[in-house]
Design goal:
The complex is a heterotrimer of chains A (338), B (855) and C (231). Chain A is mainly beta and 338 residues long. Chain A is built from 1 helix and 23 strands. In chain A, the strands form 2 sheets. In chain A, strands 1, 2, 3, 4, 5, 6, 7, 8, 9, 10, 11, 12 and 13 form a 13-stranded antiparallel beta sheet that branches. In chain A, strand 11 and strand 12 form a beta hairpin. With 855 residues, chain B is of the alpha+beta class. In chain B, helix 1 packs across helix 12, helix 10 packs parallel to helix 13 and helix 17 runs antiparallel to helix 25. Chain C is α/β, with parallel strands linked by helices and 231 residues long. Chain C has 8 helices and 10 strands. In chain C, helix 4 crosses helix 5, helix 4 runs parallel beside helix 6 and helix 5 packs across helix 6. Chains in contact: A-B, B-C. The interface between A and B is medium-sized, with 32 and 30 residues.
């Protein structure tokens, strides 16, 4: 009887309201969990390359933020985290449009649809203006990104898969001009980790041919993907296409063990998506891009800048990626708390 | 050196070994004195430390704190955003609640911004251990609590804690356990830490925080930051140095602490007299030995040193035992003192037993120093014994008699000085000169007591002879005969008893004044207050919605929603602001006005003119009276009001400014109420009305509903508890001084051995000798009592007329509780009679043949 | 001279009879102060006991005065064995039937001369103490010094006061233990003369312990006590 009800419930999911912008870049306080996720690859005038991750989380009244900076040339990875109650002047997110902040970090709507980011860490103060190259993409089917079979196990998931980044990193009086490419994710929902899943692997690939691929694998305890793993392909022009997991082959080809958390993470992948003829290898730019966020989410995860190399329809192709790996460090899995 | 050892052994160690019990008696006296002082120190320090600690724990590392007359509105925090570039800041909501787990304990609630705590205040989570579980702490309605507090109450992670706060019963869930450090040390660790929103909801403070603490990064300019904060703040908010709260906490209990310390020092003074007494007895008894030693070439210095060593040894031994006793006493006193301070100052203040080191040293130093001082005079006297064979008994007495006249003159001078000092104004808001006057009365007492002893002996000679025959005659002869020794004992007892009588009078006057005040100021028939815990203190406040509920109850004639809260004047000095419906005051009357005008008419006029009433402590503290101006910081900025009248008040020693509720709502926009006073319609009894109100509020609000009579009883109960410690201390002082009498008489019994032998030879019975000694003890008690009544009257006048008004701003109508005073005096007389028992037995047991053969 | 005290006195002065009286002070090495002393004193007799210091004179007087108790033997005064009296009766004996004059510290320092003299009769609860004391002070020529304190008196005056006190109760047995020991010879003679006179006047039995041959010459009879034995 129970399963009938679960299925019926799933079938009767609320019709997803349409997503409109800039309203839906703003906060959705009606759901408990929400995040704004910026990742990107930057380089300075001297040709040094960097990766950055700036995330604003909201869990009910609590606002958390992570800022990670990967200095590829100097092989350094550092991050800062913040936690505050949602109080004016301390941490907030407005509903009308993009304006989310935590202390003096923020992501705000700039002129002409640009996203203006500020954040600071031990490596300096980052200021970036991100200009969307593509329109926002709504992942999943019918505007719902399913995470599991349960009635609450879905989210609304919007990405801008390619933004042109321009800005600077200021340290004391020195100001390093930066430019590159960024990726924006905005997801809101129940935040519940679906039953049977122990974590997820998330891939955001930006390929040289102007296309992007997002994939997430909900992992079972044995490491295999659940039925609700899926992805989206965004072609250089035209509409995004949903990718079913059955279309994806994913193999881990190396591992790295964190000296701090003792967690063993996959450290190289081969991903093939038959429907678009893609077959690439992904490798971290630095092995150690692990965040132990005891002062904020309490979650230990790996989120890092990677390089992509392989073939598309037989022709060589390269690109960049950000990969997120959760649920590898014991019980510290995001979503179990919410 | 060897020579001195011999002198020491001849005069001090030898006799001490032969009569260890006698050597022990002064030690016991000093020990009790030191124990009392040490205990008070311990208890006081713990109280003060817990205040400070709590203030420190809350202030954390903060450099500044932003506060407002009605707290800091959430939207004002926005204006501090610029601070993130140079530091950080953390809001805090604080209050208290009653644990409804059956213990009725009061617990502090602190609402924080978890994330900012790392920068501003230390907070260390010991459980849960894993990150994911920690994330659960972030859900609303969850609290963190110190592990010690949790284990005492049997709370675990996931436990639901029932609370009543803000007039409402609710539950919170234990999300985690804190190490007892940093913020968790606030309020002695009886604390629930939660988020600002949950705390605001629990305490009825939504939309506001109580303070915002600011920490600057190293290298940032504090002055510039402070100026910038002040510039950005809206009116009604101010930025203060963070240390101020701790200072205020210190000041708060200062007067209370000083009173206790003064009493403790009195006990030590009595102990000092005991040492002086013991050493002077040694000197008297060993005059022949001293003379012999001197004739053999012992120097004055070595004689002095020998007795100084004796005094210091007595002092050291007494101090040592006293310290141990003090620790034990402190444990007992601690609960009493904490009860006092809690009920007077802060409901959730609690004592930590930490930091017992320094007071031990302080008491040891006090013990050693006072025994050294005590020993100076008798030791100097020993050096004046001439190196000739023993003098005739009595000749030293003759020498003393001649000195009585200058003594009387000096005593008179001391009293006149005391009288002059008593008229002086407080120094730095504190009655130092009043206490100096008390000290001078003590000096006068010491100076005058030999005269009193002689006069006492002379005036009772015939009476006692008639009443008790030869035993009575012998008693006066003995009493007047040992003038020096008895004077010391009488002084000690008179001092202790005088202070006791004065305290009894003061406390009785206070109690009577408070009772009269309660009767006239608590006019309402029924009171509704937030549910209070076991402590009986007011915890939190009530939502405004309760007022219409109460109003709608049948039989209610009028309702006065009363608001009492902390505030400050225009220059930032902390005070209490009260709001009351002046229409109800105009109808039912309120606290009596000092100038005797009608409180009804005054309230009516004040309401019309938008004027305020101020309490007596306010008027004293700020030197204002009717027609002057009182200022307040309000959320709308500083405001001034004309003072329409000064009323008697004992609720706050900081002073209260009382506003009409409509004026208060206007300025503060704070609708919550601290308590609700309710007048019954004619013909409706208070008990009846209380029942109806209880029924009406049941299930909606967690409140105590009391009748006027019950509330009065509660007030007096708190009053009595407050002065319980004082009573205990007086008791100790009297016990010590009665020991002094016993000690003096044992000395006499030994010294008069030959006389007792002669008396037995002449046919005196043992009973007659015992009676004579008992009567002598009683006589000492009587003379001490007479002196104590005189000194006590002076002490009482100073306490009631100078010290209390100057330290608390409270004035009392003096009242002499004859019955209680008589009881205290009878008790002391009985005790002094008892003090004669042992020396009487020693005297009566004198073997005449042996005594007469010792030559 | 007709005095009220003569009327109040018993019809005859007591005789003192000691039979084999011994006094041993116990201790690690017991001291034999008196060794089987036999002594009879007739009523009204003046007996001088002489002998070296430590010979037992004071001890014997203490026993007769009821201040101390003998180790063995019996002491009868006026026919009563005082050794067998209970403490309360012995106190009454001391109070009423015997007067004592010591060598020093005869008087209580904190009482006046008059009070010192009154004291034994007061201890007995008698109302006429003041009257009797005045009469006796007059007799010993101390009326003018009655309100002085002992430390204001000369040695001779003190002993005269002590004699007055010894007689104030109407006792007919007077014991004097080296009463002149602290006095120069002139004052010593004076005191001895006074003792002899009052004894004759009042028919008192007088036992005088002294090491002064001059004093002993005034006595009716002299016995010598040395090493606790009468020789």
């Amino acid at each position: 009887m129970k399963w009938i009800r679960a299925v019926a419930f799933a079938a009767l999911l609320p019709a997803a309201p349409p997503v409109t912008f800039p309203r839906d870049h703003g906060a959705h306080p009606e759901v408990p969990v929400e995040w704004w996720y910026y990742t990107g690859h930057l380089s300075d005038g001297a040709g040094r390359s960097y990766g950055f991750q700036l995330t604003f989380f909201r869990v009910r009244d609590v606002h958390l933020a992570h800022f990670a900076w990967t200095d590829v040339s100097r092989r350094k990875f550092r991050y800062v985290e913040k936690t505050h109650l949602g109080l004016p002047g301390i941490a907030s997110a407005i509903e009308e449009g993009l304006d989310v902040s935590n202390e003096d970090w923020s992501a705000r709507q700039g002129p002409a649809g640009a996203h203006v980011l500020t954040a600071s860490g031990p490596d300096g103060e980052l200021e970036l203006t991100l200009t969307p190259v593509k329109a926002p993409v709504l992942h999943g089917e019918n505007g719902l990104s399913r995470k599991g079979a349960g009635p609450r196990e879905f989210s609304r998931y919007v990405s801008i898969t390619r933004l042109a980044a321009r800005g600077s990193l200021a340290r004391g009086t020195r100001r390093e001009p930066l430019s590159g490419t960024a990726w924006f994710d905005h997801e809101w929902g129940s935040g519940v980790l679906p039953a049977g899943a122990v974590g997820w692997d998330w891939f955001a690939l930006q390929l040289d041919d102007g296309s992007e691929l997002m994939l997430y694998r909900m992992r079972k305890p044995d490491g295999s993907a659940t039925a609700f793993s899926s992805g989206t392909v965004v072609p250089p022009r035209g509409a995004a296409v949903h990718v079913a997991w059955s279309d994806v082959r994913l193999a881990e080809s190396a591992h790295w063990t964190s000296p701090r958390s003792r967690a063993r993470y996959p450290a190289a992948w081969r991903i093939a998506v038959a429907s678009i003829g893609l077959d690439v290898e992904i490798e971290p730019l630095l092995p150690d891009q692990e965040l132990e966020t005891s002062a904020s989410t309490g979650v230990t995860y790996w989120e890092g800048a990677c390089r992509v190399k392989g073939t598309r329809s037989g022709r060589p192709i390269a690109g960049r990626a950000y990969v997120e790996l959760t649920g590898y460090a014991g019980k510290d899995v995001p979503g179990t708390a919410f | 050196m060897k020579g001195f050892r011999l002198v020491l052994s001849a005069l001090v160690t030898g006799p001490g070994r032969r009569r260890p019990i006698r050597a022990l008696l002064p030690v016991v006296g000093v020990a009790i004195g030191v124990a009392a002082v040490a205990a008070i120190h311990h208890a006081n320090r713990s109280v003060i430390e817990s205040f400070r600690e709590s203030a420190r724990a809350v202030a954390g590392r903060s450099d500044f704190v932003v506060v407002g007359a009605r707290g800091v509105p959430l939207d004002a925090i926005e204006r501090l955003r610029f601070l993130w570039r140079i530091g950080s800041f953390a809001p805090l909501v604080s209050g208290s609640a009653v644990l409804e787990d059956g213990t009725g304990e009061v617990v502090s609630i602190l609402g924080t911004d978890y994330g900012a705590e790392g920068a501003v205040r230390e907070m260390r989570l010991v459980a849960p251990a894993t990150g994911a579980e920690r994330a659960r702490l972030l859900s609303s309605g969850t609290v963190l609590l110190p592990i010690s507090f949790a284990s005492r109450h049997g709370f675990r992670i996931g436990s639901r804690i029932p609370l009543s706060t803000g007039g409402v019963r609710t539950q919170v869930t234990v999300g985690g356990l804190l190490a007892l450090s940093g913020l968790a040390r606030a309020a002695g660790g009886d604390i629930l830490v939660t988020d600002v929103f949950t705390a605001g909801r629990l305490l009825g403070k939504s939309g506001f925080v109580d303070r915002v603490d600011v920490v600057l990064d190293p290298g940032s300019s504090a002055d510039a930051a402070r100026r910038e904060i002040a510039r950005r703040l809206p009116p009604g908010l101010s930025v203060e140095p963070a240390g101020r709260a701790a200072l205020a906490a210190g000041r708060m209990a200062r007067a209370f602490r000083f009173n206790l310390n003064a009493l403790g020092s009195l006990t030590l003074l009595v102990g000092m007299f005991l040492v002086a007494n013991a050493v002077s007895i040694s000197v008297l008894r060993r005059r022949p030995e001293i003379a012999t030693l001197r004739s053999l070439g012992a120097s004055r210095a070595s004689i002095f040193a020998a007795f100084a060593v004796e005094g210091l040894a007595v002092g050291a031994a007494g101090t040592l035992f006293g310290e141990v006793g003090g620790l034990v006493l402190a444990r007992i006193a601690l609960s009493a003192v904490s009860g006092t301070v809690s009920s007077v100052y802060a409901p959730a203040a609690k004592i930590s037993a930490a930091g017992f080191g320094a007071p031990v040293l302080a008491a040891a130093a006090a013990g050693a120093l006072s025994s050294f001082l005590a020993v100076l005079l008798p030791a100097a006297e020993a050096t004046r014994v001439p190196p000739a064979p023993a003098m005739r008994p009595g000749s030293t007495e003759q020498v003393r008699r001649r000195r009585l006249r200058p003594r009387a003159a000096a005593a008179a001078l001391a009293l006149v000085t005391a009288a002059v000092l008593s008229r002086a104004n407080p120094v730095a808001g504190f009655p130092y000169l009043g206490f100096a006057a008390v000290a001078l009365v003590v000096v006068a007492l010491a100076l005058v007591s030999p005269i009193a002893v002689r006069a006492g002996a002379a005036s009772t000679r015939l009476l006692l002879a008639r009443l008790f025959g030869p035993a009575g005659r012998l008693a006066t002869a003995f009493f007047g005969g040992s003038l020096a020794r008895n004077a010391v004992a009488v002084t000690a007892l008179a001092m202790a008893l005088g202070m006791t009588l004065a305290m009894i009078t003061t406390v009785a006057s206070m109690r009577e004044t408070v009772r009269a005040w309660v009767e006239s100021s608590l006019r309402a028939d029924v009171w509704v207050r937030p549910a209070s815990g076991r402590a009986g203190a007011v915890v939190g406040d009530l939502p405004a919605e309760i007022v219409p509920f109460v109003q709608s109850v049948a039989g209610v004639a009028a309702v006065d929603p009363i608001r009492i809260r902390e505030a400050s004047d225009a220059s930032g000095r902390a005070l209490t602001v009260g709001a009351s419906d002046f229409r109800v005051l105009a109808r039912a009357g309120g606290a009596p006005l000092l100038d005797g005008r009608d409180s009804r008419k005054t309230a009516e006029a004040a309401r019309r003119e938008r004027e305020v009433l101020v309490s007596e402590p306010y008027a004293r503290r700020f030197g204002t009276s009717r027609g002057d101006v009182a200022s307040l910081r309000t959320p709308k900025g500083p405001r001034s009001f004309r003072i329409a009248g000064v009323y008697r008040d004992f609720t706050s020693d900081r002073g209260t400014v009382l506003l009409d509720r409509s004026l208060y709502l206007d300025l503060f926009g704070d609708t919550r109420v601290t308590s609700v006073g309710i007048l019954a319609r004619d013909g409706v009894s208070a008990d009846d009305l209380r029942r109806r109100i209880r029924t009406a509020l049941h299930g909606r609000f967690a409140v105590d509903v009391t009748t006027n009579r019950e509330l009065r009883r509660q007030v007096l109960r708190i009053f009595d508890r407050t002065f319980a410690v004082t009573r205990a201390l007086e008791g100790i002082a009297v016990v010590v001084s009665v020991l002094g009498i016993a000690n003096a008489l044992v000395g006499s019994a030994v010294e008069r051995r030959r006389s007792f032998g002669l008396l037995r030879a002449l046919g005196a019975s043992r009973g007659q000798i015992r009676s004579a000694v008992l009567l002598e003890a009683l006589l000492a008690g009587v003379v001490a009592t007479v002196a104590a009544v005189a000194a006590g009257a002076a002490f009482a006048a100073l306490l009631i007329g100078v010290i209390n008004p100057q330290s608390f701003g409270w004035s009392f109508v003096p009242r002499v509780p004859i019955g209680r005073l008589a009881a205290a005096v009878s008790l002391v007389l009985l005790a002094s009679l008892a003090a004669g028992l042992v020396p009487g037995r020693i005297a009566a047991a004198t073997d005449p043949a042996a005594a007469l053969s010792e030559e | 001279m007709s005095s009220p005290d003569a009327r109040a006195a018993p019809s005859s002065a007591p005789a003192v009879v000691c039979e084999r009286v011994s006094k041993v002070y116990p201790g690690a090495r017991p001291v034999v102060a008196l060794d089987a002393v036999d002594l009879a004193v007739s009523a009204g007799e003046f007996l001088a006991i002489v002998g070296p210091s430590g010979g037992g004179k004071s001890t014997l007087l203490h026993l007769v005065a009821g201040i101390d108790r003998s180790t063995s033997g019996s002491i009868r005064v006026g026919g009563r064995d005082i050794g067998s009296l209970p403490e309360s009766e012995l106190t009454l004996y001391r109070r009423r039937e015997v007067g004592v004059v010591f060598q020093f510290f005869n008087l209580l320092p904190h009482l006046t001369v008059r009070e010192n003299v009154e004291l034994p009769r007061l201890l007995d609860g008698r109302k006429d103490a003041t009257l009797r004391a005045r009469e006796l002070l007059d007799r010993v020529d101390l009326t003018g010094r009655a309100d002085a304190h002992p430390y204001e008196l000369s040695g001779g005056e003190m002993q005269r006061a002590a004699i007055a006190r010894g007689l104030v109760t109407g006792a007919r047995l007077l014991l004097a233990d080296e009463p002149t020991g602290n006095l120069d010879s002139r004052h010593g003679d004076e005191v001895l003369g006074l003792l002899d006179q009052v004894r004759r006047e009042r028919g008192v039995t007088l036992l005088l312990a002294t090491h002064s041959p001059a004093a002993a010459r005034r006595a009716d009879r002299t016995v010598e006590l040395s090493d606790g034995r009468i020789s």
